Amino acid sequence: MAKPAAKITIKGLKCDADGCGFIDPDAPCDESQVGRACPKCGASLLTDADMANVRLLQFVASALNAEVGPVADEAQYVMLHWRTDGSGNLKILKIEEEE
Fold first, then answer.
1. What is the spatial distance between Cα 18 and Cα 41, in angstroms, rounded to a whole number?
2. How confident is the model at residue 17 (pLDDT cuts 50, 70, 90)?
3. 13 to 6, 10, 19, 64: CA distances (angstroms)
4. DSSP string, 13-57
5. Quick one: CA dihedral 22, 23, 28, 31, positive or negative?
6. What are the pLDDT digits (tens) for 54-90?
């Protein structure tokens, strides 16, 4: 059996407004969330600029899978934890091997 070389799971939204701190860890990170108002402060939880990064990451995973093809089930994924700030900046917070 084989699995895709790259997989991407994106979920959760965090308000980037100074001092707000609202987090919805289970919210989908998709087009339906663009412009969604923070229930605590009213700021946008997902901007067009940040959604562009989501689409870019999805494209990279898809392109990698098309180029590399499936990998053995025993192959380990590397997990990237990342965050955006509403401006379109993408920051990698942590890189770790899958357990």
1. 10
2. very high
3. 22, 10, 16, 26
4. EE--STTT--EEEEEE-SGGGTTPBPTTT--BSS-HHHHHHHHHH
5. positive
6. 999 899 999 999 999 899 988 888 888 888 888 888 8
